[in-house]
Design a protein that fits this description.
The chain has seven helices and six strands, in the order E-H-H-E-H-E-H-E-H-H-E-E-H. The protein is an alpha/beta fold. It is globular, with a radius of gyration of 18 Å. The structure holds 3-methylbut-3-enyl trihydrogen diphosphate (2 copies) and magnesium ion (MG).
């Protein structure tokens, strides 16, 4: 593979962090920060449309986030349901398919049902994709893939000697979605927090101190502009 000055990105993944701090700075309850953060999702979707980004993956709730106070978790799940209801029209208008990755079975039934309903109603769109990572963990995803591969090997469907990177990739939550080109994390934290460990191996990383509820179209455009200045080498020289 030759070195590439990237066009695109085709797929952007975002760790939407800083909702709690945004609320605290304003003297508001944390949940108000999450509500404000939901508004930023619309801005990110608009920016993706304008910038020609086909796939947007958003880290909405990690498999580790279940340890948060019960009221915050319940508030986030209720917000997810409200968000899906309120934004369904917008997804249709923008011909955007909704997908989900993560241990979706962990979600409370009302949120899970709403998610399934909107995924079904947008399943025919192919131009743009919004992928929500919910009860998602990168290690959990790889472990879930390993378990399924082991079960299929036991059933005689897979030869253990043939298991390679493609086998693992094919058993992840959304194997048809291309790897992210650009990963953005807001709020100044410089870590992955178990996000897309497999898929981000060659992504470009962009960290911004902006808190997620303050993130707008211009912030995504700035990240994309920086991405386009980078040189992706994929192990090659140049
Ligand atoms: C990100 O914002 C949203 C979720 C993890 C659900 P946080 O809630 O982590 O906000 P901070 O990091 O406490 O500011
Ligand atoms: C990562 O943010 C998860 C999401 C944005 C959903 P966290 O706020 O949970 O990450 P840590 O705990 O600071 O690493
Ligand atoms: Mg956080």
């Amino acid at each position: 593979m030759t070195s590439t000055a990237p066009a695109g990105p085709r797929h952007v993944a975002i760790i939407m962090d800083g909702n709690g701090r945004w609320a605290r700075r304003k003297g508001l309850p944390r949940l108000r920060g999450h509500e404000a953060g939901a508004e930023s999702i619309s801005a990110a979707l608009r920016a993706c449309r304008d910038l020609g980004i086909q796939y947007l993956t958003l880290y909405a709730f990690s498999v580790e986030n279940w340890v948060r106070p019960k009221a915050e978790v319940a508030g986030l799940m209720a917000l997810l349901r409200r968000f899906l209801r309120a934004r369904e029209k917008e997804l249709h208008a923008n011909r955007t398919r909704l997908r989900a990755i993560g241990r979706i079975g962990d979600l409370p039934a009302p949120a899970r049902k709403e998610l399934q309903r909107v995924m079904d109603s947008t399943a025919h769109f192919t131009e743009r994709h919004l992928v929500l990572a919910l009860s998602y963990g990168g290690r959990a995803e790889i472990a879930d893939a390993a378990r399924r591969i082991a079960a299929r090997a036991k059933a005689g469907e897979i030869d253990p000697a043939s298991v390679d990177e493609a086998t693992i990739a094919a058993h992840l939550y959304a194997p048809d979605i291309p790897d992210p080109d650009l990963m953005i994390r807001t709020s100044g934290e410089i870590r992955l927090s178990n996000f897309l460990l497999w898929q981000l191996s060659y992504a470009e990383f962009y960290f911004t101190p902006t808190l997620w509820p303050d993130f707008r179209e211009a912030d995504l455009a700035a990240a994309v502009e920086e991405y386009r200045r980078r040189h992706r080498r994929f192990g090659d020289i140049g």
